[in-house]
């Protein structure tokens, strides 16, 4: 079942009626001695249609060291029967950080560097379950992230519980093959090996400040062919990019060598040797690893050195004695050529908040950039919790020190710094493609934004160059100010976005939720954005449309339905100010917190429908007001349980409709004629009111989208208020609404309501 012939990364997909047992079993047992298998799994998650990064479901796995093969088993199922349609699930993979995805094709902020994510698509059609597998050979150890989502959403506002829903569930499993018998290569010590049909695994440790790593095969002898039929695979596979090195020694000049500039520091580097002579041949060779050290020149931190009481003092000067590798570069002037390969500037990491870090230089505000050696700063983003934000780097050169011929070139790399400015400017190290920056007399500023940086040590290296005349740079020195931050969201997603902190188990990452038609990673894409005039028009439509409730309020007061009038006034007030607070743009007014306004608006809408239908039933006053109170309490309780559930509000309203229909049916049978009896009542009030209510319900349940919400919901306000004004019953024409039956000498009156039975009202 392994797709080993497809290179370092292979993909297999299949739609199956049920989960095949072979996919959950370990890898085939016929493997060489020294390999073990491990299985990792996480709980399934329900997928959502994509609208922003929070719509994607993120999974985090930990790949152990010395892993030679990992296999993702992707399972997608659906629950919902006939309500489910064909769908295509997109799954993204990345090593070291969550994948940066862009399903909507929006633009990123300026100066943002983004690599396309590695993704596979899993179709889900007729079968209720679909499976796919992804194989990665020689993966990088550490965190691996998987993100899955459905296609972009249709922007239609769905009412919860109105129609049957379909649930798409995604679960990834991880099978790992890890080597336990591995040879350790010591620097400059030949390691003899004999290759048979199975590969041989080696590893070499690369310490800090290693400039180059040279791998060499010596004394190669083959029993089945001439030359040295050996293939070396060096380094890990990282997605979406892959800089793994493969060296085939069959036709290479002898001895067979592989030179790796700036290999990753402070870690083991895996080397796999495979025989190319077939299953019966043998190959013997010796592998040698040679490391070229880089001697750093560290900048002294005078305040810290002087404050330490354990320093050694020079008897003649009374100053702290520094090692030969430390010099104070705070004074002006050039250092001249020296055996140092770089100048290391210490950086302090200040943790500000969750996924928020500030890096600043110790004892200085700028970096001294020279032409002879690169200046380097190390940014420690290796805690495992720093990959969920955005790394922002800003450089500013001193204008007075920049000459027309000079250029400052900077590279931002992970794992190891780029040091080869004198030979190349591509910022490429052994296994990482860096991010280049440049400063000149015409461009004194440079910015770089890296969303979701990989978990590792990051390095900023700078060097001064004179492309036209190198001799002019001999004495040149330029100070560069650096601003280095890790922030959850760039500029807090701007004025038209909200930075939200997302969580997957204990891992935290941030994303921008945009509004007012703005889109993009940081809500900077205005291709579909609303203008300020459109935002104000939307606010005015949604708020002023509630003035239509003045019609049912006036009718209720005229007909002495004072409780109903109070409910309509409550609904008009809170609906107006809820929609004034609910606006995404600049035209926003909140008199209370958003949640309170939303609850009161939903409660007022449900209560308005409830009292209108019960008023049409023409119940006795005591029974009517008891039902008013009980129904409102039930609606309030249901909204607290599930505010978006349509049946929590629709249930009480249907119950009120049953009461009204029962009372009308009783009166029809009691009078032996249709109720109400007047055709004018049907033609000018009931039928228009029912039509307006039906159209309003149809718009509310099936026509509203995120784009047309501001005018379709305004129409809903008008139709709801207008139908209430038309459907309210007329007053009693045969009795005063409040008749006084008895008077007392103390000027108090006992009044009773005679409008309890109005069977003759037409």
UniProtKB/TrEMBL annotation:
Which chain positions lie within coiled-coil regions? none
Q: Where in the cell is it found?
A: Cell membrane
Q: Does the keyword Transmembrane apply?
A: yes
State the disulfide connectivity.
489-499, 514-523
List the InterPro entries. Answer: EGF (IPR000742), NGX6/PGAP6/MYMK (IPR021910)
Transmembrane segments annotated in the record for this chain: 622-640, 646-666, 682-703
| One Gene Ontology cellular component | plasma membrane
Q: Its membrane topology, per UniProt?
A: Multi-pass membrane protein
Question: Where mainly found?
Answer: membrane
Domain spans labelled EGF-like:
485-524
Its keywords, alphabetically, are: Cell membrane, Disulfide bond, EGF-like domain, Membrane, Transmembrane, Transmembrane helix
Q: Which domain of life is it from?
A: Eukaryota
Tell whether Endoplasmic reticulum is among the UniProt keywords.
no
Q: Which family does it belong to?
A: Belongs to the TMEM8 family.
* Protein name per Swiss-Prot or TrEMBL: Post-GPI attachment to proteins 6
What is the source species?
Mandrillus leucophaeus
């Amino acid at each position: 079942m392994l797709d080993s012939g497809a290179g370092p990364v292979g993909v297999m997909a299949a739609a199956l009626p049920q989960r095949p047992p072979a996919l959950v079993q370990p890898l085939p047992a016929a493997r060489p001695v020294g390999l073990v298998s491990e299985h990792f799994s996480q709980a399934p998650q329900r997928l959502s249609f994509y609208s922003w990064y929070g719509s994607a479901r993120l999974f985090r796995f930990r790949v152990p060291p010395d892993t030679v093969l990992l296999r993702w088993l992707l399972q997608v199922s659906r629950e919902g029967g006939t309500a489910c349609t064909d769908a295509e699930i997109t799954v993204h993979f990345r090593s070291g950080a969550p994948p940066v995805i862009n399903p909507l094709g929006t633009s990123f902020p300026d100066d943002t560097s983004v690599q396309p994510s590695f993704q596979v698509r899993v179709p889900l059609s007729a079968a209720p379950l679909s499976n796919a597998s992804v194989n990665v050979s020689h993966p990088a150890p550490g965190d691996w992230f998987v993100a899955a989502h459905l296609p972009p959403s249709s922007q239609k506002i769905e009412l919860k519980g109105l129609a049957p829903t379909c649930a798409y569930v995604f679960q990834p499993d991880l099978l790992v093959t890890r080597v336990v018998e591995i040879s350790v290569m010591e620097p400059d010590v030949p390691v003899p090996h004999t290759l048979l049909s199975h590969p041989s695994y080696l590893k070499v440790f690369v310490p800090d400040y290693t400039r180059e790593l040279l791998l060499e095969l010596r004394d190669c002898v083959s029993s089945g062919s001439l030359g040295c039929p050996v293939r070396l695979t060096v380094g890990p596979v990282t997605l979406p990019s892959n800089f793994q090195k493969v060296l085939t020694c069959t036709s290479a000049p002898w001895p067979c060598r592989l030179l790796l500039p700036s290999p990753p520091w402070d870690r083991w580097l895996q080397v796999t040797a495979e025989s190319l002579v077939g299953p019966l041949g043998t190959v013997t060779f010796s592998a040698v690893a040679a490391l070229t050290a880089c001697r750093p020149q560290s900048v002294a931190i005078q305040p810290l050195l002087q404050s330490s009481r354990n320093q050694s003092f020079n008897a003649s000067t009374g100053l702290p004695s520094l090692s030969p590798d430390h010099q104070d570069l705070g004074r002006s002037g050039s250092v001249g050529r020296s055996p140092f390969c770089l100048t290391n500037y210490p950086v302090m990491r200040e943790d500000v908040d969750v996924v928020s870090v500030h890096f600043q230089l110790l004892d200085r505000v700028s970096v001294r950039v020279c032409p002879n050696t690169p200046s380097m700063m190390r940014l420690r983003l290796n805690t495992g919790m720093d990959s969920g934000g955005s790394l922002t780097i800003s450089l500013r050169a001193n204008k007075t020190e920049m000459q027309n011929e000079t250029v400052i070139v900077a590279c931002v790399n992970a794992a190891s710094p780029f040091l080869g400015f004198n030979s190349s400017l591509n910022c490429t190290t052994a296994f990482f493609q860096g991010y280049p920056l440049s400063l000149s007399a015409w461009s004194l500023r440079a910015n770089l934004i890296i969303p979701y940086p990989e978990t590792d040590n990051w390095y900023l290296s700078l060097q001064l160059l004179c492309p036209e005349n190198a001799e002019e740079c001999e004495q040149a020195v330029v100070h560069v100010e650096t601003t280095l931050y890790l922030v959850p969201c760039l500029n807090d997603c701007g004025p038209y976005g909200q930075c939200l902190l997302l969580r997957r188990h204990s891992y935290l990452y941030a994303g921008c939720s945009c509004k007012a038609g703005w889109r993009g990673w940081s809500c900077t894409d205005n291709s579909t954005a609303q203008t300020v005039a459109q935002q104000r028009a939307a606010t005015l439509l949604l708020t002023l449309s509630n003035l239509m409730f003045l019609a049912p309020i006036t009718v209720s007061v005229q007909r002495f339905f004072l409780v109903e009038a109070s409910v309509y006034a409550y609904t008009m007030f809170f609906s107006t100010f809820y929609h004034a607070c609910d606006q995404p743009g600049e035209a926003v007014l909140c008199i209370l917190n958003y949640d309170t306004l939303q609850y009161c608006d939903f409660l007022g809408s449900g209560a308005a429908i409830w009292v209108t239908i019960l008023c049409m039933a023409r119940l006795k006053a005591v029974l009517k007001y008891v039902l008013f109170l009980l129904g409102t309490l039930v609606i309030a309780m249901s909204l607290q349980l599930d505010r978006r559930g349509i049946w929590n509000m629709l249930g009480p309203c249907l119950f009120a409709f049953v009461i009204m229909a029962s009372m009308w049916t009783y009166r029809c049978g009691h009078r032996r004629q249709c109720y109400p009896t007047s055709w004018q009542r049907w033609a000018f009030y009931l039928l228009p009111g029912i039509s307006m209510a039906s159209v309003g319900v149809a718009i509310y349940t099936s026509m509203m989208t995120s784009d047309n919400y501001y005018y379709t919901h305004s129409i809903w306000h008008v139709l709801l208020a207008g139908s209430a004004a038309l459907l309210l019953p007329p007053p009693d024409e045969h009795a005063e609404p409040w008749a006084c039956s008895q008077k007392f000498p103390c000027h108090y009156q006992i009044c009773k309501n005679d409008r309890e039975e109005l069977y003759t009202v037409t």
